[in-house]
Amino acid sequence: MAESRPEYPTPGDVGQILISSEAIQARVGELGRQITDDLVGEVPLLVGILKGSALFTADLMRSIRGPVEIDFMAVSSYGDATRSSGVVRIVKDLDAPVAGRHVILVEDIVDSGLTMTYLLEHLSGQGPASVRSCALLVRETGDAPPPAVDYVGFEIPPAFVIGYGLDVAQRYRNLPYIAVYTGPT
Ligand code: IMP
Fold it and tell me: With a 6 A CB cut-off, is 119 part of the ligand 1 pocket?
């Protein structure tokens, strides 16, 4: 007899699906082609920011036609659960130096842009050949414009979202789509 398991996602947690799995995959394919074309003859180094961009970074790497390398950093920002403060602490640094490399910083979502601004400065200071930025999502806040992002997957309205790597309290990263979180905060 099949064991009963709690319903997943928990009823009430997942609101409107903003971006379907199919739309994500199509857009990631386009970004991969763009990066391939922009860096012909080079070996880009994708730097994914854990944990939110893990799925996106893996799919983006698969969509690049040519040699490409991957590395990860983990950061924690001093903020509350849903808002970063811009003061970023590096919890896991890169495995190899980026000097002379064509680096593409890969973020899950740019909200205030503080995390990305900090990391771009951090990487630029290490003598890379170039640094580009890529974000699956950019949230339209209506506040000060976020940093210019070279490769943007989607612009989304101001709502907290989950899925495709993005979490709330470490959950829902495995949803294949991006949806508005409507559960308890
Ligand atoms: P920023 O520094 O304000 O741009 O915040 C960026 C970081 O905050 C992202 O890398 C995420 O880890 C987190 N974040 C911001 N908005 C969301 C969201 O809607 N869902 C999940 N994580 C988010």
Answer: no
Residue of 153, 154, 158, 117 whose CA lies nearest to 141: 158
H-assigned helices in 39-109:
54-62
Tell me if the domain spanning 14-181 has CATH number 3.30.70.330. Answer: no
Nearest CA to ligand 1 atom 16: 111
Assessment of whether the complete model's pTM goes beyond 0.85: yes
Whose Cα sits closest to atom 21 in ligand 1?
166
Q: Is the CB of 166 under 6 A from ligand 1?
A: yes
Indicate the angle between helix axes 54-62 and 21-38, nearest 10 degrees.
60
- The 10s digit of each residue's pLDDT in 81-113 is 555 666 789 999 999 999 999 999 999 999 988
